[in-house]
TrEMBL record:
Biological source species: Wuchereria bancrofti
Keyword rRNA processing listed: no
Keyword Metal-binding among UniProt keywords: no
InterPro entries noted in UniProt: EF-hand-dom_pair, EF_Hand_1_Ca_BS
UniProt-recorded name of the protein: EF-hand domain-containing protein
Keywords, alphabetical: Calcium
């Protein structure tokens, strides 16, 4: 569960936990992606914003894995 507080949005703290647990990304890596995804700049990601954020983070994880393999 990403949205731990049941607000139907994802905060930076919630995003950090998931991104670190799944991909090993820290806040320094996440912050620019989070800010880009947060289209209305409210400091939280709604479901549509989160879908874009998740896609970017997954792509970054795949790129990192491919870089390591080379």
């Amino acid at each position: 569960v990403v949205d731990r507080d049941g607000s139907d949005t994802v905060t930076m703290d919630e995003a950090k936990r998931i991104a670190f647990d799944h991909y090993g990304f820290d806040e320094k890596i996440l912050r620019p992606f989070f800010a880009q995804a947060d289209e209305n700049e409210d400091g939280q990601l709604d479901p549509v914003e989160f879908a874009g954020f998740r896609s970017v983070i997954r792509s970054k994880a795949v790129k990192n894995a491919l870089d390591i393999m080379q």
